[in-house]
Structure formats: C-alpha cells, structure tokens
Design goal:
By secondary structure, the protein is an alpha/beta fold. The protein has 16 helices and twelve strands. The chain has two domains: 286 residues, Rossmann fold; 105 residues, no CATH class. It has an eight-stranded mixed sheet, with helices on both faces. The protein has a two-stranded antiparallel sheet with strand order 7-8. The longest helix has 26 residues.
C-alpha cells in the first residue's frame, strides 16, 4: 500500500484560528493527558504498521518521535542509545562548529541538517538538542550547524552559505545521494533559501520549515503593528511577541541610533535579548539621553510610541530584507517541501506559511499544515485529531527522508 502525499491543492487557504491554549495551574495534568493520548496514537500507528507495512510504520515512528520530544526527559536507563559529538566543518575557509546526533549502528542512515532559529544559545539551545535527539532516535543522523548570524538575532545572506556547506559536508560524510534540511523559525526560511540556491539544490532531498518566515519585511511590520497580513490581503489582529521589536532594532541598530551610540545600544539590546537585565540597563546608561529613552521604551515593550520610526526603517530596509526572504526566491527549488506552523505563533505568524504555500513551486510542495498542536516550535496540548494530523505530517517527512539515501 503506497504512501499518498497531498498535492498542492490541499494547501491551507484560510486564516488560522485562535484556540485557547491551556496554561497555568492545570497545565501539568493536561500535559499528562497529552502524553497519554499520544501514546494511544503510537499504539494504533504501530498496529497499523503490522497491517499496512511501510507507510504506517513511518507514522508509528513519527508518533514515537513526537512522544520522545513532548514527554518528560527519559531516565538514564530508558534513554535511546545515541552517539553525540561536537564537530566542525569548513564553510568557505571558516571552521563552523556543529553537533551530530546518530543512533548506534547508523551506517547507511539518512541524514538531516537541522537549523536553529534566532537564539543566542544556537546549537546549545535545549529545545533544539531535545528535538535533534528525538529525530536521531527515530533512525536518522542529525547535524546541527552553528549559524552565527541567527545566534546573533540576525538573518543574513551568509547564513545560506553556512547551511549549504553543512548539507554538502553531511552528504559527503554519510555517502548518500542527498540529505534533508529541517529549519526552525527564521532558520526555516534560511533552509528554504539554501535548498533553492543553485550551489546546493542538488544536495537537498527535502526541506521541512517549521514556523518559518516568507517575507522578513512583512514579519517585521507584524512586530510593530500586531497585524498579520494574509495572502488575500486581509489583516488579522494578533499580538506579536514582545521581543520581536527588540530583535528588529538590534538587527538594524545602525538605522535606529546615531553612530556614536551604536556600540552601547547594540550591547544593551544584546544583553536584554540574552535576558541579562541588569547588564542591559548598565550598558544603556552610556547612551545619550535620546537614545537611552528609546532603549528604555524597548525594555518596557512600549512599541506603540516607536511605531512610526520602526515602520520607516522597515520600509528603507525592504530591499535588504528581500535578499533573506523566501518570497520570490524559491524558483530554484528541487527538493520536496513540508511546511508546518503553530496556529497561534506570536513570533512569526502562521500567515507566513500560507504565503509560503503559494510561493513554493507547485510541484515541490508536499504538505502544508497550520496546527494548534504547536506554539512556534514547541508542542502544545491540542485535540486528538490535531495530533493525528501532526503524526501524519511527520510520517510523510520520515518517508521522504528514507528516499534520500
């Protein structure tokens, strides 16, 4: 029984809904229910695997992968046996740090390059490591390259060079025909751009973009306006994560501050993004009164008072932002594409995946799922049907990964 892949006509075509997410006092009990229901999915998927062989086996493995990521950390005795190594690879004369995660006896296993999002911990970020281990425990060699620009809260063309070099390195190391790319948040957009780059397109068999951006300028405007723009042209009111505007200013600090204040402003905003609040305020004390007032407004998440200036900078930087946006830059894609987005994502709105579903060449898009099962790049507590949809999505990805070796 062959695995069937949804065609582009199944793309999402409506604005994502806004379900209420369970938080607070009752969350631990709800998470226990989450895991128990996901275990049911694992059991049923495994049973289907006996009946229908390969397609359902991939779904059973996908369910186990999600259970590994969503559940509590395994005990030492229950932990999957993986080989984890710190390594490096060459990217245009630069030695780039990386981590690899591989199951014991992984010779001939498919490879996946997993790209982190904008976070100062980069490949050391615990959620990324946990997800990499979960994917590796499903039978795949995972490599996480350190993308220095993303670790510094910036999206830059040089990130494509780094990720591309990682795909070439992992493919050659494993001796496989192609490897997969899996990118988180802004790393998802970078992954799509890498797969569309003529230098690397033939090395990439599939791309999974999770919570990715399509147009950096549009996402930047969302940080300021709290409005997500849909492909229809309609606007959807949605509260943007408070750190979005700070990331925007930090990544374009020269456009917001006079030259003499740029070093101190950059240091203050970097410390704030690293959640080093006292250091951030100490660095801000060195600024001129006008610049300090601006930084203090960002610290207080007072984006409204900076709205006009922020939007003016986005407009001026639009051409530069276009260079690091998948929008209009995906014609070179040869890889199959899988798009996944959290329905209530407040960092990059789910509307961006609706745009990506239009921008990816029709013959390359395999699945696009906007789901309440995740919040940005973390699993949530949705209904059982939404868990099934997520398991099906990951099952199709794992099936594609098998075809890359």
């Amino acid at each position: 029984m062959d695995s069937t892949v949804p065609s582009p006509k199944h793309r999402p075509s409506r604005a994502p809904e806004s379900p209420t997410t369970s938080r607070g006092r009752g969350a631990p009990a709800r998470r226990r229910l989450w895991w128990s229901r996901l275990r049911l999915v694992v059991l049923v998927s495994a049973s289907l695997g006996v009946l229908f062989a390969r397609p359902a086996v991939h779904h059973a493995r996908a369910a186990n992968l999600l259970l590994s990521f969503a559940g509590p950390p395994p005990t030492a005795s229950a932990a999957p046996v993986l080989v984890e190594e710190r390594t490096s690879f060459d990217a245009g004369g630069r030695a780039v740090p990386a981590r690899t995660y591989a199951p014991i006896g992984s010779k001939g296993a498919p490879g996946i390059v997993m790209v982190h999002g904008v976070h100062h911990r980069g490949i050391e970020e615990p959620r990324l490591q946990r997800f990499a281990r979960a994917v590796a425990s499903a039978g795949y060699v995972v490599m996480t390259p350190e993308v220095s620009e993303l670790s510094d809260y910036r999206v830059a063309p040089s990130s494509v060079d780094t990720v591309g070099a990682a795909t070439v390195h992992l493919r050659a190391q494993l001796g496989v025909a192609k490897v997969g790319l899996m990118g988180m948040s802004f790393g998802g957009g970078v992954s799509l751009l890498t797969a569309a780059d003529a230098r690397f397109a033939k090395d990439v068999g599939f791309v999974v973009a999770i919570g990715a951006h399509d147009d950096l300028a549009r996402v930047s405007r969302f940080f300021v306006t709290n409005e997500a723009v849909l492909p229809s042209g309609d606007k959807r009111a949605q509260h943007a994560h408070e750190y979005g505007a700070t990331v925007l200013v930090y990544s374009r600090v020269e456009a917001f501050f006079p030259e003499g204040d740029v070093p101190a402003a950059r240091a203050a905003l970097r410390a704030w993004l690293h959640e080093e609040r006292d250091l951030a305020r100490k660095e801000a004390a060195a600024l001129s009164p006008t610049s300090r007032a601006k930084v203090e407004k960002l610290f207080a998440a007072d984006v409204a008072s900076l709205r006009d200036e922020l939007l003016a900078v986005v407009d001026r930087e639009r051409d530069e932002m276009r260079k690091v946006s998948p929008h209009g830059n995906l014609l070179g894609l040869e890889a199959n594409v899988y798009l996944l987005h959290g329905e209530k994502d407040s960092v990059i709105p789910a509307a961006e995946t609706l745009w990506l579903a239009r921008d990816v060449p029709q013959d390359r898009l395999r699945m696009a799922l906007v789901s309440p099962a995740i919040q940005h790049v973390e699993l949530e507590e949705p209904a059982l049907a939404d868990r099934w949809a997520l398991v099906h999505f990951m099952g199709e990805v794992l099936a594609d990964a098998e075809r890359t070796r």
